[in-house]
Write a structure and sequence with these properties.
The complex is a heterodimer. Chain A has ten helices and 25 strands. By secondary structure, chain A is an alpha+beta fold. Chain A is globular, with a radius of gyration of 30 Å. The N and C termini of chain A lie far apart (134 Å). By secondary structure, chain B is α/β, with parallel strands linked by helices. In chain B, a hairpin with a 2-residue loop joins strand 5 and strand 6. Chain B is elongated, with a radius of gyration of 28 Å. In chain B, helix 1 runs antiparallel to helix 11 and helix 3 runs parallel beside helix 6. In chain B, the strands form four sheets. Chain B has a seven-stranded mixed beta sheet with strand order 3-2-1-4-8-9-12. A three-stranded antiparallel beta sheet of chain B has the order 5-6-7. Classes of the chains: A alpha+beta, B alpha/beta. Chain B: It comes from Somion occarium.
Chain lengths: 527, 414
């Protein structure tokens, strides 16, 4: 009896171990001190489901085969299979990414607000638009964000800019892209809570235990991202990331030293036992000043310092300090938002970039008035328009995709006249006097013009591209535009005034017509 | 002759109908369970909460804090996030004006952070509209709306509806843009009653002239309370000098202070809660409407609405249950993981249970022995099948009789 029970337990363990090897979980945390004294951090939680395929959209009419996940997040997996999504990217960001002082982010999706885009295969059973609606509603419930309002008035299909980051399976049907942004979306603890629930160790052990919302949402810039992609020969990968830019100078007395305790107000007490790899990377700054990193148990490679969290002694608190500095002074920067776009090329070579502007219909372009100036000289040859889908008021946003050629070491100014159509009074948001947030424009640097072939559809850039250290995508800041806002109290005022006038006029006319003045002789009192 | 046959056929069909309506044993058992305390229990099996803050903008911080205070209370007393619909019209915790990011406080002393680390807001920002609120209550939604945004109540659910914001005589303002009237809410509750979407509703509202909002209800089993009478304002409680605005309203503040003394096993009643109402403290006359509520208030527990607690019967097993000793009598349909290992006969099972549920506990001797329970469970598992079999046999026999009669009549007449 005893052995029978044991054999059963051993068999069960073997089964779960076999299943577990088909799923891998890696977690990593990267620190990068920035030149203006800030600290860029990036949490990455990657779950790889080996040997899995996205659901074929032609099977949408039938029952789906059951999926068994041990580490892979079940809630997200169910949503992906329900709507047969091949690739999904959701980012929720707050703040403005300062490219001038912070360089390029590790994760390119830094547009302010909520951005959701997905590649889905076509299907005769359920259309891509129908599945897009279901997908954004399901994700809005999952992540407590208002993604359900990314309706057809905010959805476009900019296939030139948002290329698939994984592979698209060959099913014989084409894949379509759906993209929507909500630049005014707030990000707060309620978005982080379901994010943490998708992790196998939740926020109890491992690197995820550092995610303290009271510190994360105090950062100068923060954003969380959910990226799902299909990698051929490997499987489905879910990457949950949280990027933020902290300001240690603000927390301390003018010093840019930082530690896990000072940044997150937490340390790592236990490592996540399910993680295949769990490491913390710290980028060594390239300046000459001396830097001290504690604890000493790290390895160095290619300008980074690596800590293995599973082997390190707990509680683990990593700190970096500049012992020779007394005080750090940071300069102030100011940026203004204009409807025109100015792009500066600091490199000594010509760069070609695709430029995407997807504007809600409340701002319409006059494309004939598009002007390009490079260093003060009008240069119309620097832009070549690839596609322009004009907006239809109350129905569809504008989609404008063009290729810009940036000469070396120059600044390009693009400007265009716009017109603001009239909104119906029911379309105004409750805080109408604030204005409308406009989504950011997206720039994707393509191969530089040294190569004769220009292939914007390349999802895996060649090795020369990497050497240039060009980012995959760049976002412009989000703008706020004022539209003609009606006086919402006007109907009440008009009714009151006109009713008063009518009452007065009617009263006077009625009196004039019907009132008769007669003389009455008042006889003296009889004595 | 034909008349006799017709009458016979009629009697057969009537007999079938009557048999189909006799309640099964299962239903009788359920009804007697809920009536076991003389009918004064709430008869609910699950609790839901709908918490609405309908004001936007930073200076309405106190309305957000009101709703979050209720959220925390309701979660602490046991209602899970899946049963709570929280609607916040603006983002206060991560607002750029908030000096304490990620935190919402309900007192100037800042001793308790209501936002915490584990919060789920179901409707936020522009999604908090009158239309969405009424859709949540009535359940009429687009099929693509996810589960976390639906009120999935049934006829044994107790629902706690809390609303706060700026209001007036029979209306409540949503985001300074639109209004919901007392008639709308009354009609929504009536729709819920017609569709059997609630067992009892506790409606609490904290606005100016709040008592007018519940004056129009006409559906049964609703208990309502408001913070001020007609032509009266509800006042805020205290200001925070660092944040620069008021952080909580008086009515909600005193209710939350009372709730801090209530835990999951508390026997505090609604009458105790309403005894807290005091004009000196609130500066307004808070009211209660209980004419639609069929139970007396001093026998209605707070946890009937605020907690995730319902009536349960627990039978304490009289045997010790270590897995290795019971070889033969171990039942197959109870999984091993659920049996407490090494449970002594001497262990007082009632104390183990009462620490986290408000259950009615009876010892095993009163009701059944342990083996008796299993026998009951097994027989009850089979009984419905037997009942169903009997019904189908009866149905076939009577239809067969009818067909035979019709055939005989036909053959006789030709």
């Amino acid at each position: 009896m005893f052995w029978r029970n044991n054999i059963l337990a051993v068999l069960l363990l073997c089964c779960t171990w076999c299943l577990a090897t088909s799923e891998e979980f890696h977690e990593a945390l990267t620190f990068r001190p920035l030149q203006d004294g800030r600290l860029a951090t990036r949490f990455t939680f990657t779950t790889l489901l080996r040997g899995a395929y996205p659901r074929d959209p032609s099977t949408l009419q039938e029952e789906d085969e059951s999926q068994h996940y041990a580490i892979f997040p079940l809630a997200l997996g169910q949503v992906l299979r329900e709507y047969a999504v091949t690739e999904l990217h959701l980012t929720l960001n707050a703040g403005k990414w300062d490219y001038d002082h912070w360089g390029y982010p590790d994760e390119p999706g830094v547009g302010t607000g909520a951005e959701l885009w997905a590649w889905m295969g076509e299907s005769a059973a359920r259309s891509v638009d129908e599945r897009w609606k279901g997908l954004r509603n399901a994700l809005s419930g999952q992540f407590c964000a208002s993604l359900g309002s990314l309706d057809e008035q905010r959805t476009t299909s900019p296939e030139l800019t948002f290329r698939p980051e994984g592979s698209l399976p060959q099913w014989g049907t084409t894949h379509q892209l759906r993209h929507g942004t909500l630049p005014s979306e707030h990000v707060c603890t309620e978005n982080l809570t379901p994010f943490l629930k998708l992790l196998p160790c939740k926020s109890l052990t491992g690197i995820a235990s550092l995610l303290n919302p009271h510190r994360l949402f105090d950062a100068d810039w923060h954003g969380l991202g959910v990226h799902v992609r299909y990698l051929e020969n490997e499987g489905i990968e879910v990457r949950l990331s949280f990027q933020s830019v902290f300001d240690p100078v603000r927390y301390s007395n003018g010093r840019r030293d930082w530690s896990l305790r000072s940044v997150f107000d937490r340390v790592i007490d236990r490592s996540c036992p399910i993680a295949h790899s769990s490491e913390i990377r710290v980028a060594i700054p390239k300046e000459e000043t001396a830097v001290a990193i504690t604890p000493d148990s790290y390895t160095t490679h290619a300008g980074f310092v690596y800590f293995n969290v599973s082997n390190a002694s707990k509680p683990l608190d990593i700190s970096m300090s500049w012992p020779d500095e007394q005080k750090f002074e940071y300069g102030s920067s100011q940026s203004r938002g204009r409807l025109s776009v100015s792009i500066t090329n600091h490199m000594p070579i010509t760069i070609q970039t695709s430029y995407l502007e997807s504007m809600p219909w409340l701002l319409q372009f006059y494309l004939h008035s598009l002007q390009i100036y490079s260093n003060g000289v009008s240069r119309d040859d620097l832009i070549s328009i690839v596609s322009y889908i004009p907006s239809v008021p109350h129905v569809r946003p504008t989609l404008f995709q063009a290729i810009l050629t940036l000469p070396p070491k120059s600044t390009l100014h693009l400007s265009m006249d716009v017109i603001k159509p009239f909104l119906r009074y029911t379309e105004h948001p409750p805080d109408a006097q604030r204005g409308w947030d406009l989504p950011p424009a997206v720039l994707v640097p393509l191969l530089h013009s040294n190569s004769s072939t220009l292939d914007p559809g390349l999802s895996n850039p060649p090795s020369g591209f990497e050497q240039l250290r060009l980012p995959r995508r760049m976002y412009t800041p989000v703008l706020l535009v004022d539209l003609a806002t009606p006086d919402f109290s006007m109907p009440y005022n008009v009714i009151i005034m006109s009713c008063t006038l009518i009452a007065l006029i009617f009263g006077m006319v009625f009196n004039l017509l019907t009132r008769k003045f007669t003389l009455i002789r008042v006889s003296p009192e009889p004595k | 002759m034909k008349a006799v046959l017709f009458l016979f056929a009629l009697v057969c069909t009537l007999w079938q109908c009557v048999h189909a309506q006799i309640p099964s044993e299962q239903e009788q058992h359920v009804t007697s369970f809920f009536n076991s305390h003389g009918g004064s229990t709430s008869r609910h099996t699950n609790n839901w909460a709908v918490l609405v803050c309908s004001s936007r903008y930073w200076f309405n911080y106190r309305h957000m804090a009101n709703a979050l205070g209720m959220y925390r209370t309701v979660k602490r007393l046991g209602i899970p996030d899946s049963n709570i619909i929280l609607m916040l019209a603006d983002d206060t915790a991560c607002n750029s004006r908030n000096k304490f990011p990620g935190c919402v406080y309900a007192s100037a002393a800042r001793d308790l952070d209501l936002y915490g680390d584990n919060i789920e807001v179901d409707y936020r920002g522009y999604e908090v509209t009158v239309e969405n609120f009424i859709r949540v209550l009535t359940g009429r939604m687009d099929p693509s709306v996810p589960r976390s945004k639906r009120l999935l109540t049934d006829d044994r659910s107790n629902v706690f509806v809390y609303m706060t914001g700026h209001g007036g005589n029979e209306f409540l303002k949503f985001q300074d843009n639109e209004e919901i009237s007392a008639f709308d809410i009354a009609d929504a509750f009536e729709q819920m009653w017609q569709k059997k979407r609630y067992n009892e509703i506790f409606f609490m509202i904290d606005t100016c002239q709040a008592n007018t909002m519940y004056s129009k209800f006409y559906s049964p089993n609703i208990l309502a309370t408001g913070s001020s009478e007609l032509d009266e304002n509800s006042y805020s409680h205290e200001n925070d000098r660092d944040l620069g605005i008021s952080v909580i309203d008086r009515f909600t503040h005193h209710i939350l202070r009372f709730m801090e003394g209530v835990n999951k096993t508390s026997q505090a009643t609604m009458q105790d809660l309403f005894n807290v109402y005091d004009y000196e403290k609130f500066m307004s006359h808070a009211g209660v409407r209980s004419d639609l509520f069929r139970r007396p208030l001093d026998q209605t527990y707070i946890t009937d609405f605020f907690g995730g607690v319902s009536q349960a019967e627990v039978m304490s097993p009289p045997l010790s249950l270590s897995p290795s000793s019971n070889e033969g009598s171990e039942p197959e349909n109870v999984p091993e993981s659920e049996l407490p290992v090494e449970l002594d006969q001497s262990l007082d099972f009632t104390s183990w249970i009462s620490s986290d549920t408000n259950a009615t506990v009876r010892s095993a001797d009163e009701v059944y022995g342990y083996d008796g329970i299993l026998h009951e469970l097994n027989s009850r598992a089979h009984a419905p099948k037997q009942g169903e079999n009997m019904q189908s046999v009866r149905a076939w026999v009577s239809t067969g009789l009818l067909v035979a009669l019709v055939g005989w009549v036909g053959s006789n007449t030709t």
